[in-house]
Amino acid sequence: MSSSPEPEVSDGYRRYLLVLLMLCQVFNYLDRQLPAILLPSIKKDLVLTDTQLGFITGLAFAAFYAVVGIPLGRLSDSISRRKLMTACIGVWSLATASTGMATSFITMASARFVVGMGEAGLTPCAYSLMSDVFPAKRRAGAFGIFAAGTPFGALLAFVGGGWITEIFGWRTAFIALGLPGLILAALVFFTVKETKRGNLEGMQDSGKPPPLSEVFRTLFSIPSFWHCCLGTSFTGLVYSCIQAWVPSFLSRSFGMSTGEIGSWLAPGVAAGGLIGTMMGGRLADRLALADERWRGWLPAITTGVGSLLGAIAFTADNWGFAVVMISVPLLLCPVHLPIYGSILQSLAPLRMRGAFPAISLFIASVLGIGIGPQMVGIASDLVRPFVGEESLRYALMLVVPFFGVWAAIHFYLGGKHIPADFAKAKRQNS
Predict the structure, then answer these.
(1) How many CB atoms lie within 10 A of CB 5?
(2) Which of these, 237, 234, 230, lies nearest to 370 by C-alpha position?
(3) Which residue of 249, 376, 396, 400 is most buried, as measured by CB atoms within 10 A?
(4) How much is the pLDDT for 227?
């Protein structure tokens, strides 16, 4: 280990990079979440079932997001992260815009495949770049600001997508909200620096990533990774089910329009998600000063409580109470995002800092983003003959609390292993 690492960037550049990456995450999540608010219009126009809609919002995106994520994560450990991220942003932005030209279930699903391929490259590149400019004790806070792009993206998707659809139609919404991402791609290419890996921590860079088999062997040996990965996967399942299906639930059960749904959900999505991600990271950093186990225990509490209280929304007989209760998991579930990001980067060897989040995203995408919305869609179609238009209510009532509690158990168990696993990783990186 080098005894006197030299800073490569100024504080001003750190702030600029963080804001730019957060904006990239805004559009990443905006383009991912946009179909949810448009589902009622898409369902009517293309005559699709809930199972097909669940595939479009879930597996169609998650399948390629998961599969392509690992090779892209490996690439981020070996080639220019700036160039890779630029290409990924361009791909998903163009694919989102092209979704507005879909004429059938097949063409829309194909466009979502490509969106997933592009978006898979952002997190590994962003995490790796941020780890080179923010020290370990400040990473959860920095990752919290980056993760704040998630609720802002959902806010733009709900409000912008809802009202553009109301006025101009769902096809225009995809085009109008997809193409601006190309501007971000240009900013990344021309303004982001390819900083030296590990210099901030005085780590010696071998110059090439280890074999993938070694990456998996390393992951298999870390108990806190597996528990926290499953915790974040099932938390993501709860969050993606709520965001994918709640607009349709409010439309069917209470007759709300897309513009009304977007406007009323926006405060909970934006304020809740912003507070959850930014304050969650900072709170975890403070609690961890006394006991590192809080990096697992804090999301165990927030996910468990949030999912149980959120499930009450689907028993409501008026839309106002439903919207208020839905905002609870939208506030508490995102708390895990910056904390989990900091856990991954603290556990990962230098040239695995792209591969670790990529493999994690593979697991979380399949279990959370992919299976969750699909599971709700299938359940809704199965109970529809018995409960009619209220089928989504019962499907969500079952899935959300079950997987939320399951996630909390894994976070708690992961927290118990974190101190020993962090100490082992620190020794190996020395």
Answers:
(1) 14
(2) 237
(3) 376
(4) 94
Q: Which of 178, 153, 158, 184 is nearest to 96 (CA)?
A: 178
* pTM of model > 0.90: no
Distance, in Å, from the CA atom of 370 to the CA atom of 27, rounded to the nearest integer, reads: 20
Output phi, psi for 121, to 5 deg: -90, -10
DSSP H or E stretch at residue 62: helix 59-76
Listed in sequence order, the residues at least 6 apart from 213 whose beta carbon sits closer than 8 Å to its beta carbon are: none
pLDDT band at 204 (very low <50, low <70, confident <90, very high): low
The string of pLDDT tens digits covering residues 344-382 is 878 877 667 677 777 887 888 788 877 888 889 899 999
Distances (CA, A) of 423 to 184, 204, 236: 38, 19, 28
How far apart CA 352 and CA 357 sit, in angstroms, is: 9
CA 253 to CA 251: how far, in whole Å?
6
| More confident: 248 or 143 | 248
Q: What DSSP character marks residue 350?
A: G
Q: Domain ranges in the chain?
A: 12-192+211-429
CB atoms within 10 A of CB 355: 31
- The token pair at 44 is 């009517």
- What distance in Å separates the CA atoms of residue 50 and residue 69, rounded to the nearest whole number? 27
Both structure tokens of 238: 């709860």
What H or E segment, with its residue span, contains residue 416?
A: helix 391-429
Q: What is the pLDDT of residue 3?
A: 41
> How many CB atoms lie under 10 A from the CB of residue 212?
15
Amino acid at 280: G
Cβ contact 150:334 at 8 Å? yes
Confidence at 5, pLDDT banded by 50, 70, 90: very low
Q: How many CB atoms lie within 10 A of CB 87?
A: 16
Q: How do residues 380-405 score in pLDDT, each as one tens digit?
A: 999 999 988 899 999 999 999 999 99
Residue among 366, 380, 409 nearest 68 (CA): 366
CATH class of 12-192+211-429: mainly alpha
Q: Using alpha carbons only, what angle is made at residue 45 by residues 42 and 49, rounded to the nearest 5 degrees? A: 65
Residues 6+ apart with CB under 8 A from 334: 147, 150, 151, 239, 272, 273, 276, 277, 280
